[in-house]
Design goal:
By secondary structure, the protein is mainly α. The chain has 2 domains: 271 residues, no CATH class; 242 residues, no CATH class. The chain is 75% helix and 0% strand. The protein has 23 helices and no strands. The relative contact order is 0.10.
């Protein structure tokens, strides 16, 4: 039986989107180890954490039934309110972060110029690309959703068993939700892309689409914060109380936007098969509406996208402005311009770093509303409780490792070159200098942002100037080690055959592996720091020096040996 064109295209896209990794020899064994570490240190902890959160929310909903909430309302005890809220949060973030992805996949991926010349109808290209993106973008979300539903069923306990035959329906509903929950947000993203492209096809400015993604993100954040209005402040207790009393603005609005989620939760709570059928029917209807709209708008949108991509601004350049610059400086400028001018790289590699100083600023500036945090700050300022300084030390080590791996500047250093990696060998610049430039590009933005974060902490907590300098040195030492690991992994198996810049980031397993290795190293360093304090009688000042010296002693051979290995990989790469 002959497969449909859309299915053939889907299968081809799925196969081509897989990053090829070494499977034999030393590199093969090394990457197998990276994969095991990544699953153990990232995927499993994330899934377990989401399951625990779902379990706690459900237990809270059950325990508050019939009680008077903080807003004076009687908690009606809808057992699935906590589950519904959690699913809404996942759907909201899925929609925000998938908008730019689906927009680029549908209109600006590099393979479109070849696909449109093949005997594929535009609607077949749409179906193939949509389902490919749906699966590729949702694999981790499937695992998280499965954990969320498992956490709910464990918390439901005897009530779930009392459903009798309906318990089977509830389990089926949970499995359907695991697979279909990411569908509606992605359908919305595709519809928004069609409408915006059709309405703004004469604007010739892709920035408008990126701004809409930021607007959606700010809107959902505003709704979430507004849901605490009238509850006496932002706290977990107040949020759960508003959920139990059906008085949460965020959930009320999201019930209308992600209208299939309350129906799914009703099927899980009651075990009613009709609710499950309704949930499946509504998802199918939403998908059919998107495909119908796409069949009408996608062909013209493709032409608009081609015109948009072809639009160029011609500027008068004075040749006298050109001057000879050192190769290293020129290469750094090239890397900086690539990062800042490419929207995917700018948002995921550069601007994402600002989450740390801004997040810490918001946390500390509102510390008056958090008794635990206020008490910690008082203990740290007092100086009579060494464990407060120990907690600060461990927190900074963890943040430094994770922030460096999260921005993927090092772990995509060679991937970002794409299919043009072979051109590097023709540059009038030795491989060592090119490696130095890539390392500096990863070090400078990350280091500056972490120093900004430390300065914010120092201002609000009252850290002394000398200790602030020490914290900065400790952070930079952690950053250097993470960068060396990221550069080595990406040089070992760069993902160069990508269709668009978002694919270069989300399809590059080196990002995932680098994050896992960074978390393992951070865990060991933090454990060493903690155990050294607990089982020795040295002061926290002496321990701080030991930890910094230990990191430096690790950094030195890591840089020397790592440089040799990376240069060897670069030689084999070309």
């Amino acid at each position: 039986m002959k497969d449909s064109p859309a299915k053939v295209l889907y299968s081809t896209l799925m196969k081509n989107s897989e990053m090829s990794l070494p499977s034999e020899g030393t590199k093969g064994h090394l990457y197998l180890s990276f994969g095991i570490i990544a699953v153990t240190c990232i995927m499993l902890p994330c899934c377990i954490a989401m399951g625990v959160i779902s379990n706690m929310l459900t237990q809270s909903m059950i325990s508050t039934e019939g009680l008077v909430g903080i807003n004076g309302a009687i908690n009606q005890g809808a057992m699935t309110n906590g589950l519904t809220s959690l699913l809404h949060i996942l759907s909201a973030f899925s929609m925000v972060f998938s908008l730019l992805v689906i927009f680029n996949v549908l209109f600006f991926s590099a393979d479109l110029e070849y696909l449109v010349t093949l005997p594929f109808k535009p609607v077949e290209i749409l179906r193939g690309k949509f389902f490919h993106t749906y699966v590729a973008e949702s694999i981790m979300e499937f695992l998280i959703l499965f954990s969320v539903f498992v956490g709910y069923f464990i918390a439901a306990g005897s009530r779930f068993i009392q459903l009798g035959p309906g318990a089977i329906v509830a389990v089926l509903a949970g499995l359907c939700g695991t697979i279909l929950m990411p569908m509606l947000p992605l359908v919305y993203c595709a519809l928004v892309s069609f409408i915006l492209m059709a309405l703004l096809k004469n604007v010739h400015n892709k920035k408008i689409f990126h701004r809409f993604a930021y607007i959606f993100l700010l809107l959902f954040i505003f709704l979430f914060l507004a849901s605490f209005n009238g509850l006496g402040g932002i706290s977990v207790e107040n949020y759960m109380d508003s959920l139990a009393g059906n008085d949460n603005l965020f959930m009320t609005v999201c019930n209308g936007i992600f209208f299939t989620t309350p129906i799914l939760c009703k099927a899980i709570e009651t075990g009613n098969f009709l609710f499950l059928l309704l949930y499946l029917a509504l998802n199918l209807a939403a998908l059919l509406i998107m495909l119908t709209v796409g069949s009408l708008l996608y062909p013209s949108c493709l032409y608009a996208a081609a015109a948009l991509g072809a639009k160029r601004t011609v500027s008068n350049i004075d040749k006298k402005l050109f001057k000879v610059q050192p190769p290293l400086l020129s290469y750094l400028k090239k890397e900086i311009k690539t990062l800042l001018r490419t929207r995917a790289y700018a948002s995921n590699c550069i601007w994402i770093n600002l989450l740390w100083p801004i997040g810490i600023f918001i946390l500390l500036s509102t510390s008056g509303n958090n008794a635990t945090l206020s008490h910690f700050i008082e203990l740290y300022r007092d100086g009579s409780y060494p464990r407060a300084e120990l907690i600060m030390l461990i927190a900074l080590i963890g943040i430094s490792f994770i922030a460096t791996a999260m921005n993927s500047l090092a772990s995509t250093a060679f991937t970002r070159e794409g299919l043009h990696t072979d051109l590097i060998k023709y540059l009038p610049m030795d491989l060592g200098s090119q490696l130095l430039a890539k390392a500096l590009i990863a070090l400078i933005p990350t280091g500056l942002v972490l120093i900004m974060t430390i300065l914010v902490i120092a201002f609000y907590i009252g850290v002394s100037p000398l200790t602030t300098v020490y914290y900065c040195a400790l952070s930079i030492a952690s950053v250097i080690l993470t960068i060396v690991i990221g550069l080595y992994m990406d040089s070992s198996a760069p993902y160069t055959d990508w269709s668009d810049e978002y694919s270069a980031l989300r399809g590059n397993l080196n990002n995932f592996f680098n994050m896992a290795i960074a978390m393992v190293i951070a865990l060991f360093v933090c454990a060493f720091t903690f155990l050294l304090f607990e089982f020795t009688s040295i002061s926290i000042a002496a321990e701080s020096i030991i930890v910094l010296v230990a990191l430096i002693l690790i950094d030195i051979p890591a840089v020397i040996i790592g440089r040799k290995l990376i240069l060897r990989n670069m030689g084999e790469m070309y």
